[in-house]
# Entry
Amino acid sequence: MIILAQNSPSISPNLCRLFMANYLIGNLVDKVDNLIITGTQQVGAGIYHPSLHNQSGDFITNLNFRPASEAALADEFIDNTHPIIKNRLEYLDFLNRNNLLDAPEASIVSAGKFASHAEIRVLDEAIKKLEDLEGIPRGSFPESRLDEFTIFVKFRTGTCPPRCVACWHISNGVLMIGND
Ligand SMILES: [Zn+2]
# Structure
């Protein structure tokens, strides 16, 4: 027979949420670590959203496109990105064409093909999957909800780089782990 103690210590809901958040972020970091160990690209990214994680028990991860061998894939990805990403990319291109981007030339060059980095790939996939999950029309997910996503980016060297100038503009609003 089990007797339940009336005054057993309990974890407050807030502490429980904090614990779960740290636990999940730890798992996200582990998954990206594993991705860049087994992949051949230099940068990996993973994304967390509570609803998507509840559904799949997993995180969406991906690598940067390889600049040479995957250039066509990158173009196809960019052509089909979610309207939030596409609109921001068009604005970014407009700023860049008119020398209005507030960044050193070297930073703009090192960003490579805008919107082809791992963090944009995972964000695009996550937004679309969330639209499907919620049954809302493709393209209707609002920018104001980008803060529901948490992204982790890591270099093969072990560092967590800040977003490049392109990714910063395109994914502005999401929560970044480690480095903005
Ligand atoms: Zn980037």
Residues 111, 117, 163-164, 166-167 surround zinc ion (CB under 6 Å).
